[in-house]
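== Polypeptide entry ==
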Amino acid sequence: ERKSFTLSGCTGGDLRAIQRPCRMRVEAAVSCLLFWAVGQVRGETPCPFPPTRWCSNLQIARECQVLHQCLESKPLKPAEPVQISLYYESLCGACRGFLVLQLFPTWVMLNNVMNVTLVPYGNAMEKKESGKWVFSCQHGQDECEGNMIEACLMHTLQDPYRYFPIIFCMESAADVIPAAQQCLKVYEPNVTWGEIEKCVHGDLGSQLMHLNAERTAALDPPHQYVPWILVNGKHTDELESQAQHSLFNLVCSTYKGDKPQACQLSEGRRSIPRCMAGQ
């Protein structure tokens, strides 16, 4: 459990185990006490809260003029990350636009407070022939291949910090499928294209696509179009609209913990920055 700094809890137990965190809490407390004392000498308005509460939330930290010290001395208040799920197709223009212009940039800035789930399948259909799953996709077989490449990338690399930049690279390219191999080479040079191809053209790729078909079919309410966006497992027309217009603002407003700096800067902006002529 993460707590704001206090001077309690620094006695007893194994001294070696608690030495570092205790020293950090004491240093932070001393820092804030000195900062408060300087304010008193300058005649500034005294803080109406006891020192033990100065770093309990951002509002109190600002009022007591110790925000900088609090942010340095402790992590942000933890909360459950915002869950964004995207059900999409690899060659759907609207899906590509949302992933490239909204989802990936927002994730880059706010990945410490959000998780992203990608489900490439969309309006595809499946049937079993000779004991194997066969897929037909809205934008043709190239899209089926693109869906399967991205599913195999996620399965092979596991970590979104590894596979999401590759998928972004593919979806932002002029031609998604030919770009896949080059995007992999740029972002994961130690992974061979042969590993991904083996998945795509083997039983594993079919199993992954069948799983995505089942996940898409299980949506409640059923999807009517793609991109189909879920926020914390929920889909509404209003959430879809907010996500399409500004996913960044939606994630910031949905997150229940202390807002990360990117959200705070966005909320604090009152004018549009400009580069003025003659300056």
Q: What stands out?
A: The longest helix spans residues 15-41. The mean pLDDT is 83.
